[in-house]
Design brief:
With 175 residues, the protein is mainly alpha-helical. The chain contains four helices and two strands, in the order ααααββ. Helix 1 packs parallel to helix 4 and helix 3 packs antiparallel against helix 4.
């Protein structure tokens, strides 16, 4: 026979299987999966920027024009991932939070490197402006070959008569 609680004692009316209790956990799981799916490609791009020798990860040149946006997006994602991990310290939540925070730090380092390179050379860079140009280059030159494949550089020149202009030279030795 089940024991009845003494009169006047607090009795919980919810159980472990209550739909009320499972809904937030299901939502947390969905948010965690979305954060993980959004962070994974950003983590690969950031990793490729720091370790260009890993094949197929040499995407750092793509990231440089968007480093500021990557950092802002990762800041939001890291806040969400850390919040989830703090609510319920589940191993998956802690891993996603750790990867997100590490990716945020890497992206912040990329942005800082971009800004410091510009400052050292007297160029003001807006990290949220995106890539410098989406127009076709003025000229593409071949500067070398590797295993029979041409290595080229795209050149964008300032408008004629604009005087001296700063030069940004970006080399990525990616894979």
């Amino acid at each position: 026979m089940p024991r009845t609680p003494p009169i006047g004692s607090a009795v919980s009316t919810t159980t472990a299987h209550s739909p009320r209790r499972r809904r937030p956990r299901r939502l947390e799981t969905i948010v965690l999966v979305v954060i993980g799916l959004l962070v994974l490609p950003l983590a690969i791009v950031v990793l490729g920027s720091f370790v260009p020798s890993i094949p197929y990860l040499g995407l750092g040149d793509l990231a440089s024009g968007y480093a500021g946006w990557f950092t802002l997006a990762l800041l939001v994602l890291a806040a969400g991932a850390v919040w989830l991990a703090a609510r319920r310290r589940n191993a998956a939540q802690v891993v996603v939070a750790a990867v997100t925070v590490l990716t945020l730090l890497g992206s912040a380092a990329m942005t800082a490197r971009l800004l410091s390179t510009g400052a050292e050379n007297g160029v003001t860079i807006n990290p949220l402006a995106g890539p410098p140009s989406t127009t076709s280059p003025d000229e593409t030159v071949q500067y070398s070959t590797h295993d029979g494949s041409p290595l080229t550089a795209s050149l964008w020149r300032p408008a004629a008569g604009s005087g001296d202009a700063p030069v940004a030279f970006f080399v990525h030795g990616g894979g």
